[in-house]
Sequence to fold (276 residues):
Amino acid sequence: MLNITDDKSQLKQVIEKKAQHPYLLKFIQKPSLDEDKLLLLWGLFSDLDVISEKRDQYITSTMLVQIALDTHEIVSNSGEGLELPEVLKNRQLQVLAGDYYSGLYYQVLASVGNVEMIRILSGAIKKINDNKIILYQKGSIKDVQSLLTTIKAIEASLIHKLAAYYNQPGWIDFSEDFLLLNRLHVEKSCYLKSGQSIIFDVLRDMPSSNPNSQDELTSEKEERVRVRFETCLVDARKSLERSMQKLVKVDDDLKDRVKVLIKRTGSIANSYVKEG
Fold:
């Protein structure tokens, strides 16, 4: 049974402690907690008539699912050097760790007999994994709106399913907009640092409305992709501002995080680093 917590920071410590496994931590990195999603979950349940004990169980279970998904994502993104025994062992332990964290969420809910919440989170996991396949399957996304819908499903399905269960459409829209904008910033940062980003890859593969696109130089095509991405970023910011206004009550920490995201987005002016 979980101890009832009084605030977010205390609940974060409870979740992190529950996710620690001495043997796994000898070989793999400590699992990271997505604090943005913790903020959103705390905000959602603060709006609901849910007793503190159940709130802590539901948030902890959901965050354990997120940790499991993030751990498996590390495995899928680290495919080099499989011939080395130590690398192979690390990957196997990452898979086991992800499975372990998944089992923990089930254990928390099963211990209190909450089959309905298990069903809700299981449905979210399936939706997330289905959309990850769509995202990484080359050529499967044909337009920007489909891409953004896919990203929202990957990032926000856990919170979406919970908010839908409690009939909180405002939190569905807000969490999707918030997590979409955050993911776009993460992808932009990756692109600027390494030139690699799955979202930029998908945008490059999309059909162009320009009839002369076949004659474009590589640099021209890349600039067109950058402008399209920047438009997505600014549109996501505007959508987040609108959806936040619809919520009656927003936690101060969450408000501050939104302000940081919005300020970071800035204007549509191209902010990419120019080289050469």
User: Anything to note?
Assistant: The longest helix spans residues 218-245.
